[in-house]
Amino acid sequence: MVTPTGRLDRLPGCDSAVGASLPKDGVAFRDSDGTTTALDKHGLEELMSCIFISHLLFEERILQGRDFWSFPPPVSPTMPFGSVPSSEALGCAELLRRGHFMYESTCVSHIGVVDGVDVGLGLFAQVAIPANSCLGEYTGVVRQRRQEEDDNYSYALPVVEPDLVVCARDYGNLCRLINHSDDGWNAELLSVHHEGLLHVVCRVARAIAAGEQILIHYGARYWLPESRRCISLKSPQ
């Protein structure tokens, strides 16, 4: 099975090849009053204000120029992909091919205002999740970074030229809901090399307890605008 990818330029919306395949019981959502319901794809898209996808989308011109960016430096005969691990080495190749996500182990939750800032939504563990588990791929549109945009949903790929990101602003999955913690993060986004292309996966850095919020560190570049604040997020009581 070859991992599906989509061409953004050819899509009026999102085709079935990259569209999300959710559990038949939906995805758990906990509202601000503590009520838990199950959301289908339409409900998630309305909640997240984006189109839900399980695989990457590419701008046509970016995919055509893949020879210039798909094999990031430094490379050598013994390390053909440089310092970027392969999906096989990380144990996430099948997850990427099938667009799997740990839906049954996670819950979307409304967080609200923290330290005067409306955080909005977050992703929480419903059950204990072991260290080194892969939650899923960080999906979105692979495109060139647009410096003029203040984009909160972009993850930089490890290439210098062109400066590429996976942007989950308009297309994405539950990974786009994962919040930042300065020193309490328990997961991380990692670039992997898979079937000749770069992908980004979310891997659990340490064991996560049931009810704990899944958090990553956004990196120094994200906090360069002074208007952004670093918020220490905790699970709601």
From TrEMBL:
Organism of provenance: Polarella glacialis (Dinoflagellate)
SMART domains given in the database record: SET
Sequence ranges assigned to domain SET in this UniProt record: 104-219
InterPro entries xrefs: SET_dom, SET_dom_sf
Pfam family, one: SET
Protein name, as recorded: SET domain-containing protein
Alphabetized PROSITE patterns for the sequence: SET (PS50280)
